[in-house]
Design a protein that fits this description.
Aspartate Aminotransferase, domain 2; alpha/beta; single chain; 379 residues; globular; five-stranded mixed β-sheet; 15% strand; 12 strands
Amino acid sequence: MKFSTKVVHAGVEPCPVTGAIMTPIYQTSTYVQAAPGDHKGYEYARTQNPTRDALQNALAALENGKYGLCFASGMAATDAVIKLLNPGDEVIATNDLYGGTYRIFTKVFAKYGIVFKFVDMGNMGEVERALTPATKMLWIETPTNPLMKIVDIQACVNIGKQHNLITVVDNTFASPYLQNPLDMGASIVLHSLTKYIAGHSDVVMGALITNDDTLWTDLKFIQNSCGGVPGPQDCFLVLRGIKTLHVRMRQHCENGAKIAQFLVNHPNVDKVYYPGLPSHPNHEVAKRQMRDFGGMISFTLKNDSMEAALKVLTGTHLFSLAESLGGVESLIGHPATMTHASIPREERLKAGLVDTLIRLSVGIEDAEDLIADLEKAIG
């Protein structure tokens, strides 16, 4: 089944009782049993919910996986994955990653004895040098947040298999429309469904998808035991968003490419971070593992001052100054004070995230209007 057909039909069946084409919102906390243990497959809504089941099945299909699990947020999904580990285990993670991920690693799980090493995963030599007998997991973002670095998923998977590691890929920036890490052998794919998959800035949710029976059993146990599950109405909203993922992503990519080129040619712009540009250091890897290059762009100005950056950040009209990304509307953000403020400044600078970096989530509006909006703000 082709992707455009999957997003409309995968995991979703008409209601057997009424014939409703949309999955009903099963707004219930519990289910009646005919006798103790004699039920219709549902006992308690933390454990199972038919609306959530439909979404989990749809997500598994989009990532070419066997199993999908949904959580109350992307961070709840991250939390579940790290709970697979034990004190003393080590995780090698990319050194350019979402600030919330860095925070939960270093401020929550590190105190329980889990060790996190942050390296430039664009360089496989750095990954290999960080390996020790205690290493149990590789944590990948690609494209990374916010510098749009590209990590070679297949190369990481090869290292992971050689050393019996769990390879986790945060696929939020790409979405399953652009990239399917499980097809390359990744152990787990993570999504903040809040972003491109839901796509309308109206829900917060996360998901994990895997082909591994043991990982699924362990993660499902954690999902039920720890209880970080989404409600049925939020699941309904994500199911609805999925149905237009392919058409939205096509427009995000088309607009992103046009705006990246506009920024490259602008006399007041210094660096542009976008994997679709031939000048991107890992452009060839991006071409190999992605179908297109998405709608996320970061850039800096030649006037490398906070005053100049703030003028742009507060000078747009169509690009709204806000956290998050992946919605139909365009957003502009300042990673150093917003999405990545939880990462110490010295660590940000070490990874190349300067204080004046500006990040764009390019929406699906008309590209000419978006370019005019940026032109006015940049000057």
